[in-house]
Amino acid sequence: MMTLLEAPIIEKKESWMVTKPRRKAKLRLMEILFAIGVSISLFIGLGTLLALIIDVCIDGLPRLNWQFLTSFPSRRPAEAGILAALGGSIGLILITIIVSVPIGVGAAIYLEEYSRKNKLTDLIEINIANLAGTPSIIYGLLGLGLFVRFFGLERSLISGALTLSLLVLPIIIIAARESIRRVPQTIREASFALGATKWQTIRDHVLPMAFPGTLTGIILAVSRAIGETAPLITMGALTYVAFLPDSLKSPFTALPIQIFNWVSRPQKGFHENAAAGIVVLLLVTFLLNAFALFLRDRLQKKSGIKSM
Amino acid sequence: MKNKEAFLKYLFLACALVSILTTGGIIYVLLFETIAFFKEVSIIEFLTDKEWTPLFVNKHFGIAPLVCGTVLTSVIALAVALPMGLLVAVYLSEYAPAQIRRVLKPVFEILAGIPTVVYGYFALLFVTPLLQKFIPSLQGFNALGPGIVLGVMILPLVSSLSEDALYSVPTSLKAAGYALGATKLQVCFSVVVPTAFPGIIAAFILAMSRAIGETMLLAIAAGQMPNLTLNPLEAVETMTAYIVQISLGDTPHGTIEYRTIFAVGTVLFLMTLVLNTISYRIRERFIRI
After folding, report:
1. Alpha carbons A210 and A189: distance in angstroms, whole number
2. Residues 6 or more apart whose Cβ sits within 8 Å of residue A14
3. Whole-angstrom Cα distance, residue A6 to residue B142?
């Protein structure tokens, strides 16, 4: 630590201590360059977001109406709609939540409350970190090889939902673990002291306290799943579906796939449809994200008061 | 009662093992089809041939053009995201007042939460036409436009992970810098950034892995023409875009075309696995306090 501190001091002593006018001017210049760099970066980041939203709204809003929401796709852009895509997306999300939330929370409970520091735990930890960084399209290949072929589930709603479940699992596990970890140890000890078993303690005290944080993670996972396209296309979702999915084994499409299908056509009419679909998709994603941020904000305020 | 407690423990362990099974499943599926692929195509051809034309009559299976497309778009994206992300991170962690932070952080999270198919639309129909006004020779599908948009897309990842690394620098080090008469900017760039450097590198590597794996944006806006070029103005096809292209067609199970997507997927998986592991190790070693 000492050497770390000393090294730059000795090296920089002359340049910092002696304030020649030229050096001062150079420092000032660096500060100006830094300010310009930060401004450009923020401008590009925020400008892109703004340009994207405005561009999509200009192209898409005129097309957005009741007919668009309640029609099946069509060869004629003006008659096409997103009903099948909406139905598919809602079905996918519902099944994904039902499958991934219990497994994700269960895994988090194991890792935080039961596991000891050993080789297996280490392996699970690094494995989850890796899965969180694995490209979504790889999950599509997994879904294709495993659910569609190996388990013979065909290119169906359930195959798609299982693929998405595996994809969002790391997000849910990481969020649930963090909120479980934030529950003070004293709560557990108090519960044990009153004679509660481990499971009673988890069920009645740890999970309720960890609930808001976990919910935030689940919402973020849902918003991610709604926007995912690549894994669904890879596992074989259809791009042209003119019916609502009526069973788990039904073929399906999803909103982002429908958007992709329209973007890749050359006609301008379909581009407008794509933009209108994007407005719907962004609205849903923003609402979900805003809700998650709101929850987390409230959570932070609450815990802040408590610690005081 | 005892039995129930023990049962639940194993139930939760089973949940945790699902993640291991997922990785196992990925490796199994990829290897199974990739081995079948390499029974028909030699690995030498795969690695050295300069053409990728599995759908033509005259089939070539050289992955180089696809890797080239992926690397080209990723390099453009990183050239945008790394410097900007670091500057934003330094600004947010050292300079920005609380109110500005409270606005900027959620906005960046929104930026990170936008579905990538939306970025694809934006790159194809807004950014590329805009760039064409300045660069007339830019093709309709190209590496430059989507590369830049990809850079903006991973900007929040770079800035928030770098910010975490900057935060972990002890205040005592900064105070020592100030005590020696350094200005704020000098403390930032000669004390804080160097100390946080491993964490920043970990963030950069993770961003690289994200850029390599990005799919829809590039499938929509970069093109679907395998092209061994480093010219950002031309259409290229990335590994991910190729997998999408084949998946959209009705490629029968068991054919060589079907197996190519798993072979390409294996290369992609290995690249991201190596990058993710390096990033994880760096973070584990340097950031845990």
Report:
1. 16
2. none
3. 50
Note which residues in 151-170 of chain A have CB less than 8 A from chain B: 166, 169-170
For residue B70, which phi and psi values (nearest 5 degrees)?
Answer: -65, -45
CA angle B214, B215, B218 (to 5 degrees): 100
pTM of the model: 0.89
Identify whether B264 is part of a domain: yes
Substitution target in B3, B10, B19, B188 with the highest count of A β-carbons within 10 Å is: B19
What's at A124, amino acid-wise? I
Other C-beta atoms lying within 10 Å of the C-beta of residue B87: 21
Domains of chain A, earliest start first: 92-301 (1.10.3720.10)
Q: Do A170 and B19 touch (CB under 8 A)?
A: yes
Q: Which residues of A287-308 are buried (b: 16+ CB within 10 A; e: fewer)?
A: ebbeebbebbeebeeeeeeeee
Q: Is the pLDDT of residue B114 over 50?
A: yes
CATH code (residue B207): 1.10.3720.10
Instruction: Give me the pLDDT at residue B1, please.
Output: 66
Q: What is the ipTM of this complex?
A: 0.92
Q: Does A298 touch chain B (CB under 8 A)?
A: no
In this predicted structure, what is the pLDDT of residue B88?
A: 95
By residue range, what is the domain housing residue B277? 64-286
Domain assignment present for residue B118? The answer is yes
Whether B57 maps to a domain, the answer reads no
Residues in chain B: 289
Count up the domains in chain B and report the number: 1
Q: Per residue of chain A (308 residues), what is the pLDDT tens digit?
A: 444 444 444 444 455 555 567 778 888 898 999 999 999 999 999 999 999 999 999 999 998 888 888 888 888 888 888 999 999 999 999 999 999 999 999 999 999 999 888 888 889 988 999 999 999 999 999 999 999 989 988 889 999 999 999 999 999 999 999 999 999 999 999 999 999 999 999 999 999 999 988 998 999 899 999 999 999 999 988 877 878 888 888 888 999 999 999 999 888 889 999 999 999 999 999 999 888 888 877 776 765 444 33
State chain B's mean pLDDT as an integer. Answer: 91
A133:B116 CB<8 A: no
CA atoms of A124 and B253, how far apart (whole Å): 33
Cβ pair B269, B70 in contact under 8 A = no
Closest residue in chain B to residue A274, using alpha carbons only: B121
Position B26 in a domain: no
List A residues 127-146 in contact with B (Cβ-Cβ < 8 A). Answer: 127-131, 133-142, 144-146
